[in-house]
Amino acid sequence: METFLERIITSAIIITVSFIIYFIVKKIINGLFAKRVKKAKHKKSITIMKVINNIIRTIILILAVLTIISVWGVDTKALIASLGIVGLVAGLAVQDTLKDVIAGAAIIFEDEFDVGDNIQIGTFRGDVIDVGLQNTVIRAYTGEIKIIANRNINEVINYSRYSSIALIDFGIAYNSDPEKVKILLDKICEEMNKFPYLISKVQLLGIQELSDDAVTYRIYAECKPGMDFPCKRDAWQVILRECQKANIDIPFKQVVIHDAK
């Protein structure tokens, strides 16, 4: 008969060996995916690698727990057999977890999104930083992190699969010199074409609207996936700078109050 101390030592050894096995297997898996990660499909490879690591970790954890239980004199064969009796109860208890796992597998195999993709679920938009068996973790550009159960992911907008489109609307005062406006628009497009994330040259679509206080022009820019926001920010800087250089007013709403005295 093993003493109490011997059982504690054996359990500690099992835990230590399990950790060592997990880190060795994890290193091997990461090594196998290392070359694929550097290629164009690196996002998909990272996602699959993370999921495989999670599965292996779960399997090693279960085996370690069963081994430790057997060390303490519990008949694991009878325990496993008894799972059939309580299977229905356990199934009801973990049905949400099973739904998460099934939904997570569907996300991966149907290639809905990968780690690193910029997506929107509901009203929350951000970069995918982890896809697990149960949850998907998204980080917004402002730093907020949202953890979403896989079963609750019904509709996804993926901004990283195809090029992004930036539509930039800006107003020019009605009293501006048409020739100066033409030169200004050409200069704005010329400066925007220097943006490193453009896929093709920007297009001046022309007049978008005749509003109450300005002639609104629209520029169309096709960018690399997820770069529509940076493109708009940089475009507004160019527009402001070039309008100031050309002494062309950008109208703003004003309130005129007449004194009846």
What does this entry look like structurally?
By secondary structure, the chain is an alpha+beta fold. The protein has two domains: 4-158, Helix Hairpins, CATH 1.10.287.1260; 164-246, 2-Layer Sandwich (Alpha-Beta Plaits), CATH 3.30.70. Helices cover 49% and strands 20% of the residues. The protein has seven helices and eight strands. It has helices at 4-37, 42-71, 76-82, 87-93, 95-109, 178-192, 228-246, and strands spanning 118-121, 124-131, 135-139, 145-149, 156-158, 164-172, 203-210, 215-223. Strands 4-3-2-1-5 form a five-stranded antiparallel beta sheet. A three-stranded antiparallel beta sheet has the order 6-8-7, with helices on one face. The chain is elongated, with a radius of gyration of 30 Å. The mean pLDDT is 80.
In the CATH hierarchy, the third-tier topology of the largest domain is known as Helix Hairpins
**End-to-end distance, in Å?**
108 Å
Number of domains: 2
Q: Estimate the helix proportion, in percent.
A: 40-55%
The CATH architecture of the largest domain: Orthogonal Bundle
Low-confidence stretches: none
The neighbouring-strand order within the major sheet is 4-3-2-1-5
Helix and strand element order = HHHHHEEEEEEHEEH
Largest sheet, strands/sense/barrel: 5 strands, antiparallel
**Care to count the β-strands?**
8
Indicate the CATH class of the largest domain.
Mainly Alpha
Q: In one word, what is the shape?
A: elongated
Strand content: 15-25%
Multimerization status:
single chain
Mean pLDDT: 80
- Alpha plus pi helix count: 7
Structural class: alpha+beta
Could you tell me the radius of gyration in angstroms?
A: 30 Å
